[in-house]
Design a protein that fits this description.
8 helices, alpha/beta, about 220 residues, Rossmann fold, four-stranded antiparallel sheet, 11 strands
């Protein structure tokens, strides 16, 4: 999934981003509300992890604008304010979930995953196609019963191809879902990742190139 983390404490923001990247999510980071709104207008995010007390534009206003825009982005609000009235107010703004600080990173990751499932049609618990089984929860891939060790990006790309259910996925779509905003789209990173994925999945070849369009698993 594509996740935007909005947190003005750099160390905490980096820790959250790293934890979510370990779950194969593409993560961007913003340090204030204005930067968050700018990214939200240029990128499509599945989940917004939003610190409530942020500078420039307050988190409440960011949440309000996201909700009023009709975006499918799900909002997980983070705050040190733990009172029931604070939680009720945050949810009343349209936030989908509310997590108080301090929090366990494992719980945050689980909530992000749950919210991401709401932003698009639910995936089956395990993705299967053409002899390949991908388990997002366990982060495991098998082909015809053989375990296939994949990197985080290879895993994310394979998941997107399996979710497409035989349809072609463009390189731009893979960049959007599997990489963050810092990737250079002209480096050929998608093509290189596909090559490595093909090698690890083995023969017969599984991932097809549709010239000028993208990639698919028929």
């Amino acid at each position: 999934m594509r996740v935007l983390v909005v947190e003005d404490e750099p160390l905490l923001a980096a820790a959250i981003a790293e934890w979510l990247r370990d779950d194969s999510h593409a993560v961007d980071v913003a340090g204030d509300g204005a930067a968050a709104l700018e990214r939200l207008t240029t990128n499509e995010y599945d989940v917004l992890v939003l610190d409530r007390d942020i500078p420039v534009v307050h988190g409440d206003e960011v949440c309000r604008q996201v909700v009023e825009s009709g975006s499918m982005t799900r909002v997980l609000m983070l705050t040190a304010a733990a009172a029931v009235t604070d939680r009720v107010y945050g949810l009343g703004l349209g936030a989908d979930d509310y997590l108080t600080k301090p929090f366990a990173f494992a719980e945050l990751a689980a909530r992000v995953l749950a919210l991401g499932r709401r932003s698009h049609p639910a995936d089956p618990p395990v993705l299967r196609r053409a002899g390949v089984t991908l388990d997002p929860a366990r982060h495991e891939v098998f082909r015809d019963g053989r375990y296939v060790p994949l990197s985080k990006k290879e895993f994310a790309v394979l998941a997107e191809l399996l979710r497409a259910d035989g349809a072609t996925v463009s390189a731009e779509q893979l960049l959007e879902k599997a990489w963050d905003e810092h990737v250079d789209p002209f480096t050929g990173v998608v093509r290189l990742t596909i090559l490595k994925l093909r090698r690890k999945l083995g023969e017969p070849g599984l991932v097809e190139t549709v010239t000028g369009v993208g990639y698919r698993i028929p």
